[in-house]
């Protein structure tokens, strides 16, 4: 017999701790409560039932025994024992979240550190014959190892895992894991280690594997970040840029943050946001320049994930567009092409060449 | 400065009350309750034969002229009798929330004020296993402040011993009067004999039993280690709803017993849980019992 989730030592330890707690609670319930009363003369007839001379003695041992047995059965059920010979190990897929969010700092380390520690503990608890495939998942699920029994290789792959720069595609990671397990005759668990910070669409993921185990890191960190930044030339003035910046509060508390816009190191605009939890707001700026340069948007917030507090976009220089028109009547097209972005330079008569 | 035992609003309400007793007790003129004892009153009571030594002014001369016999007119007396408030200061009065002792002190103060307003002679007599220093006041409401200070300075201590206190009381106060006992009556020994003893000496009893809610219906469950507030004796037991019902029944039986003692001796009994405010207790159960009118 082996226990899928717990080693036999852990099972005995947890069972013993729970049993001790139950017995202690039982005895605590039976412990005396001290009260000062005006007289004892009415208490004697009230206590015709029993006087607790042996107060610490368990009064209903069968009841207590049954309770302990029930707890033990529940624990064994949670442990998922497998009966019979189990020489053939099982194949587990360990998905490590390597999205950019895993670089967020917690009180002690980064989310990635927590995730790796949880994954290492999980691998350590597995029977030695079980095989594990390590998959790093961000926008693309990438296998790092094949189904391996060598714990050194697996642990090394886990330790080398670093947060990436893209968002997590959870559905694709699960699909990949399921495909990998489909080829195995002894499919084990799909284990996901990470914060699993996904978009709302991803959250409503339909195909969650039945054999999924989640080793979740603390994802509920306070963070305000730039959601997107967009630019376009103003339709009315060719040397003016319309800049759209979206800021989102990913945390659970309302936050006040300031957004600063700089072009070439010079201030180009600013705005203060008061963001409710999970709220997104957009600011629109206009900036007039013909020169090329770097436009930088920066949030002056200090949070767990500083990577999304700054974005830089390169603005191109405005150059006239040379257009050559081959037409019999080039003068007719001249007003059309004389847009702010174009320059009608010359016209050729197609018939004359 | 400590808060007064009774606020001014309640004192004003108390002014319309009078301590009432049922027995005919002898005493000096000036009271407000009638007595079967004749004396120098205003209301005609009866005639009786003249005996040597009787007051000649009370002879009915008209009857003498008609019947040629000397009859004496007797007048109804409204004696001023002493009102003694026995306040239990034993350690059992310390239990309960609020403490029964505080409640009893307020009650004693209220009764004292009612008596003083009607010019009764009031004696506040604390007791536990014996009588302690008493406070005697009379002659009007202006003496109430001293009585309130006396009550406020009372300290709890000692076990209850009704028999010892009753013996001392009888020897200390030979003149018959009204005795108001304010206590929880939770003496380990039976309080019937000492109360009967006081009644047999001609005193009228008003027994005011004060109890905390936990005294009558303990809210606790499970294994209890109980300590007697007076003796320090411990008792361990298992307590459940069934035991609680038995306990309450025993308590009620004891209260009924005390009530019977009072009624048997032409007295009155009032049971007051401390959860009932003092004002409600006075204008409710106490007035209904006839102790106050």
User: So how many helices of chain A?
Assistant: 8
Strand content of chain A: 25-35%
Based on Cα principal axes, name the global outline of chain B.
elongated
Oligomeric state of this protein: heterodimer
Determine and state the CATH class of the largest domain in chain A.
Answer: Alpha Beta
Mean pLDDT of chain A: 80
| CATH architecture grouping of the largest domain in chain A | 3-Layer(aba) Sandwich
Mean pLDDT of chain B: 86
Protein described:
The complex is a heterodimer of chains A (353) and B (293). Chain A is 27% helix and 32% strand. In chain A, helix 1 (8-30) runs antiparallel to helix 3 (61-79) and helix 4 packs antiparallel against helix 5. Chain A has helices at 8-30, 43-46, 61-79, 111-125, 151-159, 170-182, 200-203, 330-337, and strands at 2-3, 33-37, 81-82, 91-97, 131-137, 141-143, 187-194, 212-216, 224-233, 240-249, 255-263, 266-275, 280-288, 293-299, 310-315, 321-326, 342-348. Chain A is α/β, with parallel strands linked by helices and 353 residues long. Chain B has 293 residues and is of the alpha/beta class. Chain B has 2 domains: 8-23 and 80-289, von Willebrand factor, type A domain (Rossmann fold, 3-Layer(aba) Sandwich); 34-77, no CATH class. Chain B starts with 7 loop residues before the first helix and ends with a helix. The model of chain B has no long low-confidence stretch (mean pLDDT 86).
């Amino acid at each position: 017999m082996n226990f899928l989730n717990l080693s036999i030592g852990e099972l005995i330890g947890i069972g013993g701790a729970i049993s001790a707690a139950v017995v202690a609670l039982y005895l605590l319930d039976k412990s005396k409560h001290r009260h000062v009363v005006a007289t004892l003369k009415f208490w004697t007839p009230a206590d015709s039932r029993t006087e607790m001379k042996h107060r610490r003695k368990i009064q209903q041992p069968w009841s207590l025994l049954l309770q302990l047995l029930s707890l033990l059965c529940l624990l064994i059920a949670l442990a998922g024992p497998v009966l019979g010979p189990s020489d053939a190990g099982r194949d587990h897929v360990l998905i490590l979240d390597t999205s950019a969010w895993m670089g967020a700092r917690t009180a002690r380390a980064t989310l990635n550190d927590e995730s790796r520690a949880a994954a290492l503990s999980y691998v350590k608890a597995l029977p030695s014959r079980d095989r594990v495939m390590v998959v790093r998942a961000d926008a693309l699920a990438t296998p790092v190892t094949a189904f391996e029994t060598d714990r050194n290789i697996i642990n090394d792959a886990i330790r080398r895992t670093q947060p990436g720069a893209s968002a997590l595609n959870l559905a694709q990671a699960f699909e990949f894991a399921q495909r990998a397990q489909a080829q195995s005759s002894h499919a084990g668990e799909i284990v996901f280690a990470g914060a699993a910070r996904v978009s709302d669409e991803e959250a409503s993921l339909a195909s969650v594997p039945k054999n999924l185990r989640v080793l979740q890191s603390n994802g509920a960190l306070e963070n305000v970040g730039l959601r997107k930044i967009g630019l376009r030339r103003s339709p009315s003035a060719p040397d003016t840029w319309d800049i759209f910046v979206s800021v989102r509060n990913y945390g659970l508390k309302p936050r006040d943050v300031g957004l600063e816009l700089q072009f070439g190191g010079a201030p180009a605009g600013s705005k203060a946001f008061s963001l409710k939890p999970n709220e997104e707001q957009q600011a629109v700026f206009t900036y007039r320049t013909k020169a090329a340069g770097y436009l930088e948007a920066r949030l002056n917030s200090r949070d767990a994930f500083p990577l999304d507090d700054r974005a830089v976009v390169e603005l191109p220089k405005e150059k006239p567009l040379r257009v050559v028109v081959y037409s019999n009547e080039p003068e007719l097209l001249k007003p059309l092409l004389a847009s702010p972005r174009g320059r009608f330079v010359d016209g050729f008569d197609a018939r004359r060449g | 400065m400590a808060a007064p035992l009774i606020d001014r609003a309640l004192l004003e309400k108390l002014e319309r009350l009078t301590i009432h007793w049922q027995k005919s007790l002898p005493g000096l003129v000036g009271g407000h309750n009638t007595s079967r004892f004749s004396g120098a009153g205003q209301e005609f009571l009866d005639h009786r034969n003249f005996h040597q030594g009787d007051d000649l002014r009370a002879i009915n001369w008209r009857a003498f002229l008609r019947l040629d016999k000397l009859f004496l007119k007797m007048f109804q007396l409204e004696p001023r009798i002493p009102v003694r408030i026995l306040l239990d200061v034993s350690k059992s009065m310390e239990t309960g929330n609020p403490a029964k002792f505080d409640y009893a002190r307020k009650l004693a103060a209220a009764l004292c004020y009612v008596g003083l307003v009607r010019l009764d002679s009031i004696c506040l007599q604390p007791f536990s296993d014996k009588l302690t220093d008493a406070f005697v006041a009379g002659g009007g409401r202006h003496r109430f402040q001293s009585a309130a200070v006396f009550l406020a300075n009372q300290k709890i201590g000692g076990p209850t011993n009704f028999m010892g206190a009753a013996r001392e009381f009888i020897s200390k106060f030979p003149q018959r009067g009204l005795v108001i006992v304010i206590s929880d009556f939770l003496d380990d020994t039976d309080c019937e004999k000492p109360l009967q003893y006081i009644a047999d000496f001609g005193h009228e009893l008003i027994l005011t039993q004060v109890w905390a809610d936990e005294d009558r219906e303990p809210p606790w469950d499970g294994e209890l280690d109980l300590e007697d507030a007076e003796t320090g004796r411990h008792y361990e037991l298992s307590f459940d709803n069934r035991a609680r019902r038995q306990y309450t029944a025993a308590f009620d039986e004891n209260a009924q017993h005390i009530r019977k003692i009072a009624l048997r001796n032409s007295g009155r009994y009032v049971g007051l849980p401390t959860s009932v405010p003092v004002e409600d207790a006075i204008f409710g159960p106490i007035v209904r019992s006839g102790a106050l009118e």
